[in-house]
């Protein structure tokens, strides 16, 4: 198994690593409340080539989202308690 700096095992079973999580630097760039939902825009590195489905979120999971050209558009049904300029907890799964 290859070691990736900054990565942590997500699950360990019978001594085998099933998934690895690598942190992705991300920052909240915009938040807007619309019709009871919160639209949040997060900027990540444009070089990230993984899909939205390989992302893992911190404690507050979005209801839905999309990723394109380093821009992560997220929708929350509850206030995610984020502010513009906040670091955003995000990982990619391997």
Topology:
Layout: E1 8-13, E2 16-23, E3 26-34, E4 37-44, E5 55-57, E6 64-68, E7 71-76, E8 90-93
Antiparallel strand pairs: 1-2, 2-8, 3-4, 4-7, 5-8, 6-7
Give the key terms:
0% helix, 52% strand, Elongation Factor Tu (Ef-tu), domain 3, mainly beta, four-stranded antiparallel beta sheet, globular, 94 residues
Describe the model.
- The structure is a single chain.
- The protein has 94 residues and is mainly beta.
- It has a single domain (8-93), classed as Elongation Factor Tu (Ef-tu), domain 3, CATH 2.40.30.
- The chain has strands spanning 8-13, 16-23, 26-34, 37-44, 55-57, 64-68, 71-76, 90-93.
- A hairpin with a 2-residue loop joins strand 3 and strand 4.
- It is globular.
- The chain starts with 7 loop residues before the first strand and ends with a strand.
- The mean pLDDT is 85.
Q: Tell me the fraction of residues in β-strands, as a range.
A: over 45%
Low-confidence parts, pLDDT < 50 over ≥5 residues? none
What fold name stands as the CATH topology?
Elongation Factor Tu (Ef-tu), domain 3
Beginning-to-end CA distance, first to last residue: 12 Å
What kind of sheet is the major sheet? 4 strands, antiparallel
Q: Quick check: average pLDDT? A: 85
Overall, the morphology is globular
Tally of helical segments: 0
Helix percent reads under 10%
Structural class: mainly beta
* Second CATH tier, the architecture: Beta Barrel
- The first-level CATH class is given as Mainly Beta
Can you summarize this structure?
The protein has 94 residues and is mainly beta. It is built from no helices and 8 strands.
